[in-house]
Amino acid sequence: MSASSTLPRGPRTSATTRRTVLAAGLAAAVAPGVRAAPARTLTVAAFPLVDQIVKDAIPQWSQRHPDVAINVVMRQYDDHHTAMTTALSTAVYLPDVMALEASYVGKFSDGGGLSDLRQPPYDIGRNRSRFVAYAYDQAINRKGQVVAAPTDIGPGTMLYRQDLLERAGLVSSDLQPSWDAYIDAGIRIKKATGANLIGNVRTFKDLMIRSGLKKGQGLYFDSDSNVLVDTPRFHRAFELSLRMRRNHLEGHLETWSNEWAEAFRRNMTATELGGSWMVGQLANWVAPGTKGLWRAAQLPEATWVSYGGTYYAIPRDSDPARKALAWELIEMMTLDPSRQFAALQTQDAFPALLEAQDAPGFDEPLEFLGGQRARELWREAARRITATAIHKQDKFAEDAVNDALDSVLDNGVGIRQALTDVARLLELRARR
Amino acid sequence: MSTPIRHPARSDVQSQDGSLAATPETRPAKSGPPAARWIAYLIVAIGALFMLAPFWFMFVFATHSRSEIFNLPPPVWFGNDLGANFKLLTERLPFWHNLGWSLYVAGMATVLTLLFCSMAGYAFALMEFRFKKGLFALVMATMLLPSFMNMIPTFMIMDALGWIDQQRALYVPGAASAFGIFLMRQFAASAVPRELVEAARMDGCGEFAIYWRIVLPLMKPALGTLALITFIQSWNNFINPLVVMRSLPNYTLPLALRSLQSTMNTEWGALMCGSAIATIPLIVLFAITSRQLIAGLTAGAVK
Amino acid sequence: MSMRRPSFLRLSPKWAPYVFISPFLILFGVFGVFPLGFSLYLAFQSWEPTGGLKAMEFVGLANFAFALKDPWFWTALKNTLWLAIASGVPQHLVALPLAAFIHTSFKRLRDGVIAVYFLPYITSTVAIAIMFNALFSQDYGMINAALAQAFGMSHIDWLHDPGRIKPAIAFIVFWRYVGFNTVLYLAAMQTIPGELYEAATLDGAGRWRQFFHITLPGIKPMIFFGVTLSVIGGLQLFEEPFILTGGKGGPQQAAMTSATYLFREAFAFNDFGGASAMSWLLFVVVALLTWATNVAFRTRKGPQ
Question: Do A75 and B259 touch (CB under 8 A)?
Fold first, then answer.
């Protein structure tokens, strides 16, 4: 098989690009009225659906910079972050703009591989007040550098089945005073309707360990790498999780699994605690048939957490000639209310820009939630979320604590024993 | 307890073209009560169903929509969504480009691997040179490390060579396959008689001619085997393309199909459709090489 | 068969070996040795990869010490050994009699049967992941449905019960490679001459005795080859546990093999130094067990 005649060519080599640039430059010089071919290309690395958001911005960008093309390199979510790790590790083939999910911003922030956006020409500090506070704070690393610009956020919310609560004689405010109240309501719902309070107890545990965190506190470790797992915060979370399991209030289903989704479709799950984008997921594929039956409310016990979010970063070692342009693109994506709003409309991306949240049409009634204007709730929640400090071993700690919870719930291990054991495990790694 | 019986040289039972037909003389006794035989047939048939079932479902699911796939009970016969799935597949990915690249890369990988490994295997088996044993041990050692640990150094090398986003980064490195050289060396040692090579040399035959005209034809079965295995491994590999390729149109198929998967929102129907199509070339290849495969594996391992 | 070339073009037998191995060696030197060396070097460094290459810090044996004290490292190793045995042994125990049976009892259908049993080997892991996740689903999977129908068993949570996920993975690995091994053994059985069997039948030996005393010893080299591949492959088991657990370790890390742990250590926990050290420790284990397999087969040979 002859590659050259029957198969598509790969991207042009740099030599060819230079020739094209020269030719285009000449043509532009000779015929000033004619639009020049792109002389430069900005490479943006992203994952679905962020890649689509960037692509949607290209027409607006082309008006401002007709000579700069945008090349969006899309990879599946995990693959993208693996590829970004690889690129940062060797400082070659770095994109000009790197989209990162919130949890990866934390992972990459201390390594020094991302540019500090407070420096000129970026000066993101100037615009600090325009962003949702915690989203900005989350991108600040230990040295005080701001390593990424937030573009969308996932304010935590409680979604509940209005109809199931009604049958149990409850309203949403019955679930909100405290996590204990949430569970008590769950017992009543189970009795009246047979539905579980929630699909997966881990979701509940994750929220509980975050409730009551002060700004700048770490989740599993403090700033001196001391392990925080054997504390009342975790004990309470485990106790209530056990109470939930003992009362059969959770479905023991793996989030995003088919069984978990099916439980929604079959009216077997009464609430879900997650990011506001969960509404979109429910509506699109998880349980579209339950449209109109759900409502949103703030999380119990005044818990303000965020679920994910997207950021744009500029690698420290990317081509300096394009960094200013890269920042312009990021500015357009993050600080232009029309772009933020467009992303909300097309991809359900909740804006990190405060102005976009105040735009007319922002707080429209949401069909899936029976016409509820839920975005004002989420806007309110977003302003109350505080950033947590990230620790290098957080990912490991998450897995280890999940295992500890499973051992308590499934294998009958005592809570104190489980937490002591996991604390010891985390000690071994805390300072690596 | 009777002593194990030594079997005569391979050449006694192998036919000219290297393939092994099961002639009555090479098979053991068929005696046994018919009932037991029929039970054995039944077991094999049930086993065959187990082997086949996931395939069957893969092809069946390729013709169903996402919600149908997860019904209870799941569909066991074909549905009507093949067109829709295929349409989604081709909308989301440059499917034919990816398929084409997969074929090209796997094909080139196979050719290069066959060439380099047969040359080296022949040398290791039938020639003498310094550090032969040490080199071979070093090569074997690479088989013992997990390959994903090579991601970052591979990326560095490809960048240094300027091969990022080029297909040759995918098929050239694999040509130095430890498994390939192991197989080639085993087979050459047992299938190519030293005397033949010596005689040809004394006749004045050049080294390349010996390799090309004498050694290679004798190694055909092993070549078929290695071709099949190399093609399959190259086809299914997605880690190398992930590291090296940078744009969706340049991806090979397995990597491209991953873009349909996300934790939250996988397009199962389209994904099954793509996976099913991706398996077809492998099945075709296996059908072609299965005869060679059996002959190749046996002679190589007997020694 | 003489090909006369001018003497200055003829490759002399002295240099021939080097010419023949050079393409392979060049590629190996570039693409094989460098990663090997890099990984060895990295095992002695502490490295936050996103900081770039300059972020490496020499830490001596700290990574190795960490690995040896790490409970998860040992859990992974135990899981790996369990899975290697549980998936490897049945493969060969089934492949041997199966090959013998196909060898004796199938004529026209032989190629078809072999093809069907070989199919799992050529499937892509993506397809396998999808299929088996669906098949093993607790409430909606075929396997539980079949078990409930046939034996009235209640639904088993294959993927989330720590006691059940290992057998599920072992089953998948078995499913994938039993055909491959059957083909190996079937091929080897072709080389055993029929006269041996005829003589044995005349002597009054039944089918089973012939299997144990003629067939098995006759294909011993191939059994060694197949078992070695299974040992190496089993100890490096990565794909099947990875896809069945979505890249994590499964319920309470019950499905975490050494290879998947290493992968997570590197790419999820961003500890490349630790992961490299662990991969070299794993290397030692695999090398030892491969050597042990070698010895076991050699000493069992007996007088020939």
Answer: yes
